[in-house]
Amino acid sequence: MGTLILGIESSCDDTSAAVLEDTKILANVIAGQEVHKNFGGVVPELASRAHQQNIIPVIHQALKQANIQKNQLDAVAFTRGPGLLGSLLVGTSFSKAFAMASGIPIIEVDHLKAHILAHFITDSPEQKVPEFPFICLTVSGGHTQIVRVDDPHSFSILGQTIDDAAGEAFDKAAKIMGLPYPGGPYIDKLAREGNPDKFNFPKPRIPGLDYSFSGLKTSFLYFIRDELKKDDAFIEKEQANLAAAIQRIIIEVLMDKLVLAAKESGISQIALAGGVSANSGLRKALGDTGKENGWKIFIPEFQYTTDNAAMIAIAGYFKYLDKDFASQDVSPYARSNF
Ligand code: KG4
Ligand code: ZN
Questions:
Q1: What atom in ligand 1 is closest to the CA of residue 307?
Q2: Contact 130, 151 (CB under 8 A)
Q3: pTM
C-alpha cells in the first residue's frame, strides 16, 4: 500500500472527508448544508453547527468507502484557512484530536492552494496532469486569482480581484433576479436557453492582471430596477437572456486577463480551479481560448470543482512527502495566507 492520507474540509458550508492512496482517490464524501438556502447566503453560526453534526458520519463513510481502517492511515490533512473561523475550527479541532488518538501527524492545508492541486488527483494511471510551471485561474465564491505555480509548494499570485469574487458576481446577479442561493448553477442553467448578446453591461477597466466585479453587479442591478419600472414582469420574461448576458460578460472579463497573464509569463499550461470552474460557459471558453492560443488546458472534473476533501488530501500528500507537519497548537486563519 502507498501513503494513506485522510483529508478533511470544513471551511464554508460543505463538510467533506476523503481518503487518498498517494495521488489516487479512494473516497471523497461531501455533505452539503441545506439550512442556508432560505437566507440568501451562508450563515456562519449555522454552518459550524452543521459541521459538528456531519463530521463524524462523513469520516466514517469515507473510511468505509475506501475500505480503510483508521489505524492504516499515515496522516490527517485539514483545511487551516481561509474560510469561516467557526467552521474551520470544527475541522481543525477534530483533526488534532483524531491524529493524537491515532498517533499520526497532522498536515495543515491552504484551501486555495488545494483547489489548484486538485489537478494532481488521479482517477486513472493515464490521466494527464499539469507540468510546472503552469498558470491556474482560481474562481470561487470567495476568491478570484491568477496564480503561477512553480512546484507543489511554490505559488505566486499574478492578479486577483480587488472587490467581489467571480462566484460572488454570479451569486449576486442571481439574487437580483430572485434566484436561490448559491445562484451560480442557476445562472449557468438559464444561460443555456438565452441570447448572450441581447443585453450588454460595461466591463470593468482595471489595469494589469487584477479583477473587479462590483461595478458589473451595480450596473446589472440598476438596469433591472429601471426595466422593472416599465414592466414588472421584465425578469420573468427575460430571465434566460439576462443570465446569458451576465455570464458572457463575467467569462469575457476572466478570459481577457488570463490571456494577458499567459502572454506576459510565456506559460502555456493553463488550469482552471474553484467552484465557478463548474460553469459550462467558462469551461467552453477556456477550451476555445486555449485552441486559439496554443495552450494545453486542464479543466477539473465536476466533483473536484466545488469544495471537497480530496483536494485537501492531495495538498496534504505533497507536504507529507516533505515531512511538513503541523504542531498541535496550530489554529485556523480566516484570511488568505498566500
Ligand atoms: O469553491 P467553492 O465551492 O466555494 C468557495 O470556496 O467559495 O465555490 C462556490 C461558488 C459559488 O459562488 C457558486 O455559485 C459558484 O461557485 N458556482 C458556479 C457554478 N457552480 C458553482 N458558478 C457558476 N456556474 C456554475 N455552474
Ligand atoms: Zn473553495
A1: 3
A2: no
A3: 0.94
